[in-house]
Amino acid sequence: MDEIYYSLVDWSRAQFALTAIYHWLFVPLTLGLSFIIAIMHSIYVRTGKESWKNLTKFWMTLFGINFAIGVATGIILEFQFGTNWSNYSWFVGDIFGAPLAIEGIMAFFLESVFIAVMFFGWDKVSKKFHLLSSWLVAIGSNLSALWILAANAWMQNPVGMHFNPDTARNEMLNFGEILFSPTAVYKFLHTISNGYVVASLFVVGVSAWFLLKQRHILFAKRSIVIAVIFGLISSLFVAYTGDGSAYDVAQTQPMKFAAMEGLYDGEEGAGLVAVGVLNPEKNIHNDNDDYIFALKIPKFLSVLAFRDANAFVPGIKDLVNGNPDQGIEPVEERIKRGKIAINGLAEYKIAKNNNDDVAAAIAKKDLEDNFSDFGYGYMPDKESIIPPVATTFYSFHVMVALGMYFILFFIVILFFALKDKLADKRQLLKLAIWTIPLGFLASELGWVVAEFGRQPWTIQGLLPTWMSTSHLNTGTVQFTFMLFLVLFTILLIVELKIMLRQIKLGPKEERS
Amino acid sequence: MFENLSYLALQQYWWIIISILGSVLVFLMFVQGGQMLINRIGKTSIQRTILINAIGRKWDLTFTTLVTFGGAFFASFPLFYSTSFGGAYWVWVIILFSFIIQAVSYEYRTKPNNFLGEKTFNTFLFINGLLATILIGTAVGTFFTGSEFSIDKLRITNIADPVISRWETPYHGLEAAFNIFSLSLGLTIFGLSRVLGLLYFINTIDDDEIVSRSRKQLKLCTIGFLVFFLLFVALLLTREGFAVDPMTKIVSMEKYKYLHNLLQMPLVLIIFLLGVIGVLFGIFVTLLKNSRKGIWYTGTGTILTVFAVFLLAGFNNTAYYPSTFDLQSSLTIQNSSSSQFTLTVMSYVSIMIPFVIAYIWYAWRSINKRQITKEEMELTEHKY
């Protein structure tokens, strides 16, 4: 494998990261705002009050602006698995394709059909059907998240399949196992509830701006009450599902878990870093301290990982070099077995072509006996299995800190909202505006943890990134990377300018 | 119930679903056709607003159908997805690019402070109409011409050269745009989308000027469309095709393969002929009987015709995505499909499709009950 090939892989990864990060700027808001709008719309239909209609319409307008660019940035993701990850698409397409198709059939149509009714239906359809449409948009967008997140979860924890040497791919055995694996369930719940938090922070922040400007006071207060309740419940749920996700990662992706904590040397009764700075000198070849400075919560990491205060949490060194006391094998052993498995597949295919059934049977046995380490056979050395530790560590800790802050933030806002003193708390209102981008940041960081932390794998233990790409020139992918970078950046500027102007214009009540 | 179907039957069932999605997609490209005609039909600002709002209520349906088409192709024939998308890279990227700029254009074009200006977004819509229709048609054209690629699953065991599906020309799909046959299909779709766009305007807009201008334009567009369509059909029925031996699975060239397919599958022939009649009848009643319902005949005709063309490509022991570089790398519905288990699971999901079509229909009717008028555009708050 030469350097040119690695640079193709790097640019393909960069393009995927770029497009996914852009797409994810818009998705959380869609997931959450759709429900907030549906709630507001319900209040309008129940009370029949024009003011609630205007309130609903205002947030709907912002929703539509955000939704359009979400759709625009989303289409590339649907096709990018094929355009840039051709090998991946064949190797696991039998499993991975299904959720994408179901997403289209079940969710995208629901979203796109009823969003038209939601926007254009005010005087065209009955009130009840119109309200139903708003709810169906919310359900549709969250359903689409279900399928794509189940697909992503499967890449992190591939279950419910077997390898078929005749087709040289993995094939589905149990659809339920894929959809309901704990990884999929936690990923789905954690991600959508995070979307609800982002949207709530957005509604609270924008409303706070109106309170600061002393415009649309009643509108702003009403919006805040709905968003803060929705946000507080959601943020508590995010913490709960985050805990579940971390537990799941510890079981299924111990290397990612070690990287999230920057833990090189495993220990029993390990503490969780609350605040810390990694030691940049640290690597698996030295015995330096893991951190320059770290404030730890004793035993908490062991509890998080194994629900047992004294459990052993393996570190990066343990996972690479092995730790016989804890029953962890050195990676080099797995690499050896992986190479036997890959070689078995090659020999099986050759024997089959030569109609040599005896040789095929022997090769197949080699493959099957060692298949659990198949992907390790592609590793050039043992250190290749270590993800970027610093990126994973800092992303994880900043995300968690922000998550805690959001809970506190919602409690404080709710407290003053209930006392009806919010309008006087100018510092708090300013803070609310500045908290909007933090919501997006936390959300993106969650993906950074998930996706950097699982490197070098596209499919955990089965296929590394450099075996997943398409057969393209680096220059081709560099060009499309730049194309999407420029295009998406321009569109983001357009979206922000339009969004800010619409907010400035405010809801209809006082506009005329 | 799907468990009882043979593997081949499931593969055929899924080819039929792909064909339905593909044919519905071509019908729904009336949106792209309309996008190209905004300035031709709309002479005043309000007229252009009417036109854009007429198709603007449907654009995401086309978009979603395209995405679902891609997803369904991935799920049912993953080797096509990995070979075509990863190989004919440039064609697909340009198609996707055109849909990205479309997706924001309706919502943003008249919003205050939109940075690029209304004209830019209108141009985006035009570009999408032009590129999407021609290039999607051209890409489907390669189902009959073949492309230069090779497939070798053994490569996954070779870390130095791991990619199973490999495009063997540096043009990565752009070569199809210079093939007369593929281009004839591309231009057919281009012309057809414009015909459909005009019929949709005539159906849904209540404005005498727009309707009469659309009728006039329809004559021109019909002539253009028919020229390309007849060229496409003539080239298709006279060309060599990629036949698969059902026993040995060996792919070889067969003279008049697609003509043979048409004659050996009389049902497909009937569907094809009914489709063509439907397309022409819709245009005929619009031009000569002053009917406003032409879109339904031409639309149904489009779906039937394209459906038949897809079946010609994939059924009757034909390789639907042939390789001219290495005939034996050609994709057939048998060698490129998902496993029997996955196809079975997906078949249960497909039961939802009629339900989806039903609510699309219901929502369409609720919104299109009344025709769009100038007055409505002046009064309504939410418009594009």
Write the SSE topology:
The complex is a heterodimer of chains A (512) and B (384).
Chain A: H1 3-47, H2 50-84, H3 86-91, H4 93-120, H5 127-156, E1 161-164, E2 169-172, H6 175-179, H7 182-213, H8 217-252, H9 254-261, E3 267-268, E4 272-278, E5 291-297, H10 300-306, E6 312-313, H11 316-321, H12 331-353, H13 357-370, H14 389-418, H15 426-453, E7 457-459, E8 463-464, H16 474-505
Antiparallel strand pairs in A: 1-2, 3-6, 4-5, 7-8
Chain B: H1 7-28, H2 30-36, H3 38-41, H4 45-56, H5 59-76, H6 78-87, H7 89-108, H8 118-145, E1 149-151, E2 165-167, H9 180-204, H10 208-238, E3 241-244, E4 251-254, H11 257-264, H12 266-288, H13 294-314, H14 340-350, H15 352-368, H16 374-379
Antiparallel strand pairs in B: 1-2, 3-4
Helix pairs in contact in B: 1-5, 1-13, 1-14, 2-4, 2-8, 2-9, 5-6, 7-8, 8-9, 9-10, 9-13, 12-13
Task: Walk me through the structure.
The complex is a heterodimer of chains A (512) and B (384). Chain A is mostly helical and 512 residues long. Chain A has 16 helices and eight strands. Chain A has helices at residues 3-47, 50-84, 86-91, 93-120, 127-156, 175-179, 182-213, 217-252, 254-261, 300-306, 316-321, 331-353, 357-370, 389-418, 426-453, 474-505; strands at residues 161-164, 169-172, 267-268, 272-278, 291-297, 312-313, 457-459, 463-464. In chain A, β1 and β2 (169-172) form a beta hairpin. In chain A, α7 runs antiparallel to α8. The mean pLDDT of chain A is 95. Chain B has helices at 7-28, 30-36, 38-41, 45-56, 59-76, 78-87, 89-108, 118-145, 180-204, 208-238, 257-264, 266-288, 294-314, 340-350, 352-368, 374-379, and strands at residues 149-151, 165-167, 241-244, 251-254. Chain B has one domain (2-379). By secondary structure, chain B is mostly helical. Chain B has 16 helices and four strands. In chain B, β3 (241-244) and β4 (251-254) form a beta hairpin. Chain B has a two-stranded antiparallel ribbon. Chain B has a two-stranded antiparallel ribbon with strand order 3-4. In chain B, 58% of the residues are buried. Chains A and B meet through α2, α3, α4, β2 and α12 of A and α5, α6, α7, β2 and α14 of B.
